[in-house]
Known about the structure:
heterodimer, A: mainly alpha, Arp2/3 complex 21 kDa subunit ARPC3, two-stranded antiparallel ribbon, 4% strand, globular
Amino acid sequence: MHISDGILPASVLVAGFTVTAAWIGYTARKLDADDMPRVAVMSAAFFVASLIHVKTGTTSVHLLLHGLVGIVLGSQAMFAVLMGLTLQAMLLQHGGISTLGVNACIMGIPALLVGWTYRYFGTGKPSAFRVLLAGALTAGAVVLSALMACLALFSAGRDFQIVIGGFLATTIPIIFIEALVTGGAVSFLLKVKPEMLSCHTSTLRQSA
Amino acid sequence: MHPEIDRYAGLKSPIHSWDCGLKLPGFLLLMLVIATLDGLGTTAVSLGLAIYFLALSRISIGFVFSRLKWVLLFMVPLFVLLPLQYNFGTADGGWTWKSENLVLAFKITLRALAITLLIFPMLGTAPFHRSMKSLQDLGVPKVLIQTFLFTYRYLFVYLDQLRKMRIAMRSRGFQPGFNRNSFKVYGNMVGMLLFTSFEQTERLLNAMKSRGYDGNIRILYQPERDPLDWVKLMGMLMLATILFVGDHLWLK
């Protein structure tokens, strides 16, 4: 789901940075010192996910976990996604520096939508429903991220049509993998630390 | 692979001695200009510049090459996928080979490699926390920098936990595959990583607060800029301007 440096036109790069900066600027005001370590934990998880490879026949894909980041952090998900992407670009040369804004939108906006929807529909519901909801929303987030990435690639020109087709084809197994792994992680967390998934970090502190 | 990028921060070179507060904006500006280049000549020059800065920084070439795999993994298929075109909705529809798109793939690869190579002299020539402090001094919101530093610190904790978990999974006979059981195991692994990390976070935050943490991270480093640092920044600005103007002239 990462778009590398050197592909997108300047206008799309600027638009990506503008949207990301606006949202980060808005949420940064609400983030206090106590929240930072928790956001950092999810940012690190998002980073490490790119190092967990799942075999799909002869090849393998890495986990994304942006759906899980959204479920745990809600409105602060974009923050964690931006941190994770920046570190992936700087430390692993995975993604790009000039495309950070666009990539943050591609991964962060679906994460935000997953977080809000999970909280709206999942709060107070039985565990089995929440696991299914988390899996379904994550599958939707992967689809949305893929569509947004395709839209960004399309802005680079019509010549990218086969690239886009290939990109969409590789996304199909990721949809299932992400849904099942996130569902599994949510199921695990609901058993051992359910408060991590149901409320904002500040509420989590009060319950600890 | 260990994601430590500042392994070569202790070397001596003109880029190592350049103050971070001026080095970061200089390199970032050059990267952003390279991202907008469209002429084949200017993109080739930008890659040459990136290689020059890399050589100047004396960072190990082997270290750099080991980290270019993601870039190359994405770029190599472009040499097939970009020239290969399908004509939709035309009478002579079907697959065609558009050779001129090989140049486009080549330009994209040059730009991506140039920007990626510049990351190493930009970030690999100073300790990571010093680069972050410089960004904070440049006006990047404090909350961003501190979360970033926390994330960087947690990375190594996570990677260590992940390594231990992989060993434990292998020792219990886990065979990864594309099946429901594997995904359940991966889900539990991710859940366990988060759970243990959150538990650690609680303890870490309490320990930091008890030592006076108030949301500000303080380090001993104080920037010492001499006139040569400004000259280097001016040189970088000139290079970026020449590339930008040259690219527009090239296109005309």
